[in-house]
Design goal:
Blueprint lengths: L1 H16 L3 E7 L4 E7 L4 H12 L7 E7 L2 E4 L17 E7 L6 H4 L9 H5 L20 H6 L4 H14 L5 H13 L7 E6 L5 E6 L3 E5 L9 E4 L3 E7 L2 E6 L7 E5 L2 H21 L5 H99 L5 H70 L22 H37 L9 H12 L3 H8 L4 H10 L1
Parallel strand pairs: 1-5
Antiparallel strand pairs: 1-2, 3-4, 3-5, 6-7, 6-12, 7-8, 8-9, 10-11, 11-12
Helix pairs in contact: 9-10, 9-11
Length: about 575
């Protein structure tokens, strides 16, 4: 009796010492988070906490994955976290990943899915920031892809940067959607592969995805041999290692396959059930929750549209202001240059005017001197004529002197006249120089006045908006109590944006094709893998993932089941 009491006391003591919480680490694509979880929590409690922390509402695409004995598994929502076969060491680690994939991302995704994409890290392209070499330390592409082409890292960086600059200004949600649209068209998008055998023991691959079940050759994971869409499947079950698939048509016999491990069977069944549920859900009317989410998404889209328009207007105003500022600065520099040139011209004009004035004064004095000499010569001639010459020799000599005096007087008169004309011309040149000086001073005065007015306008009257106010949703009353006219206008804007987005998407596809054509010549054929060759063949034949599955399902379910059994 005493021993039983002691045992109960010991058990109660041990029970009290057991911790009530444990630590969980959640690894996402961008970061790691830690939570303190209660021991009694089920998978749904932890999953909901993670989704709330991430602000995620489209929770049905995601799950918490863990690894046990080299096999991946997903946390079950209705089972306690610690009842899973998870490692006992704390913190217990789970990976938050996409478990299911949409058929059409553009139609199904309501909430933006945050991906670790290039532009999220670097933002929009800015030539002043994103200069040569800014991608040198980044692992932009898988090494397998880099080795497949005869291109240096610098060549890849150049092409990636050119594309980065080409798509400057693209909205984040548009970029995300284009990324997902490219990904969803790839043959292996969203497919989980499992090794199976049919009843003949043939080794095959089972592919489970959003569209249905697909059977592959082990050497070709791109092109399925047979496909069974979810709308043809009524039930899936397994017993030990054997899976049983019941077609919707009850007249058709079930078909079976075997997998290798029991853990794998559980994973296959989980993925089949989840993908089938989502497949059927897409083909029904939206639930109230999804309707609310879509309504909120439309409202959010309207908000973002208004925000983008506002930011675009602010950007345009800023660019116009910068252009105006640059133009004013350019014009100011031009005016300063013109003022400098006018000053120099004025100085040259003043120097020329001074020289001309000095030369005119000298010429005028020379003319006066010549006139005086001419007068003296005239007087001498008159005196000589008045003198009585009595002898013939004296008369002859006198006549000769008179003749010489007359010639000298004539020459001096001509020189005096020439000097007078030259003086008049110099006076005229002096007047023109002074007129040029006056005009130069007037132009300098005009330029100085205009420059002062420009600086005044630049500094006080109309300040350049180099520091425009940032957009603030709090200060701006965006209550979204829209009137009918506002809603119509927004609808028109959204429709216009949709058309522009489609044009951008088309342009992007054309650019992708151009890039493929450009680098195809640089591909090293000897380094291509079997999957590379198969993908190239599918592309050259125009065989996309959806086209291939559509062709495979043209035959009846019965014939496809028979074909699977005979593989």
């Amino acid at each position: 009796m005493a021993g039983a009491i002691a045992s109960r006391m010991s058990f109660s003591s041990l029970k009290r010492k057991q911790p009530k919480t444990f630590t969980v680490r959640i690894a996402t694509m961008d970061a790691e988070m830690e939570f303190s979880c209660e021991v009694k929590w089920k998978g749904k409690d932890l999953f909901d906490l993670v989704c709330r922390t991430l602000g995620l509402r489209e929770t049905w695409f995601f799950g918490l994955q863990y690894t046990i004995k080299d096999t991946v598994a997903w946390l079950k929502m209705d089972k306690k976290v610690l009842d899973h076969d998870v490692p006992t060491e704390e913190p217990v680690t789970f990976h938050f990943l996409a478990k299911f994939y949409p058929e059409n991302a553009e139609e199904e995704l309501v909430q933006e899915i945050t991906q670790h994409l290039f532009f999220l890290q670097y933002g929009d392209y800015d030539p002043n920031v994103h200069k040569r070499g800014f991608l040198a330390q980044e692992e932009l592409l898988p090494k397998r892809v880099i080795n497949l082409y005869q291109m240096t890292p610098e060549m890849w960086e150049e092409r990636i940067t050119a594309w980065y600059a080409e798509h400057r200004g693209r909205a984040r949600d548009e970029a995300e959607m284009e990324y997902l649209k490219i990904a969803q068209d790839l043959e292996m998008y969203g497919v989980n592969y499992f090794a199976i055998k049919n009843k003949k023991g043939t080794e095959l691959l089972l592919g489970v995805d959003a569209l249905g079940l697909h059977i592959y050759d082990p050497d070709n994971r791109l092109t399925p041999k047979i496909s069974f869409p979810w709308n043809e499947i009524r039930n899936i079950s397994y017993s030990d290692k054997e899976f049983t698939i019941k077609p919707l048509d009850k007249k058709i016999d079930v078909f079976k396959f075997n997998s290798s491990k029991l853990r794998v069977n559980k994973l296959i069944l989980q993925l089949c059930i989840g993908n089938h549920d989502l497949f059927m859900r897409r083909r029904k009317a939206d639930s109230l929750e999804v309707q609310q989410m879509k309504a909120q998404a439309r409202e959010e889209k309207a908000r973002k549209q208004m925000e983008r328009q506002r930011l675009a207007r602010e950007k345009q105003m800023r660019e116009e202001a910068e252009r105006t500022r640059d133009e004013l600065e350019r014009r100011l520099m031009q005016l300063k240059e013109e003022a400098t040139m006018a000053n120099e011209a004025l100085m040259r004009s003043e120097e020329t005017a001074d020289l001309l004035a000095e030369k005119a004064q000298i010429t005028e004095e020379e003319a006066k001197l010549l006139a005086q000499k001419a007068a003296e010569a005239e007087q001498e001639m008159q005196r000589i004529k008045a003198t009585a010459i009595r002898t013939e020799e004296e008369k002859r000599l006198m006549e000769q002197k008179v003749l010489e005096a007359e010639m000298l007087a004539l020459k001096m008169a001509e020189e005096s006249e020439r000097r007078a004309k030259e003086a008049d011309q110099l006076k005229q040149d002096l007047q023109e120089a002074r007129e040029s000086e006056r005009r130069a001073k007037q132009k300098l005065l005009e330029i100085t006045s205009k420059s002062s007015y420009t600086q005044s306008m630049n500094s006080s009257t109309t300040p350049l908006p180099t520091d425009l106010p940032s957009f603030n949703l709090i200060n701006e009353s965006l209550s979204f109590d829209f009137k009918d006219t506002d809603m119509k206008r927004l609808s028109m804007e959204i429709e216009k944006e949709k058309v522009e987005y489609m044009e951008k998407s088309k342009h992007l596809q054309e650019q992708l094709n151009e890039l493929k054509t450009e680098i195809e010549a640089l591909k090293l054929k000897e380094r291509e893998t079997a999957l590379d060759i198969l993908h190239s063949e599918n592309t050259s034949r125009g065989n996309s993932k959806h086209n291939t599955i559509k062709k495979l399902t043209l035959q009846s379910t019965k014939s496809r089941v028979a074909f699977f059994e005979e593989l």
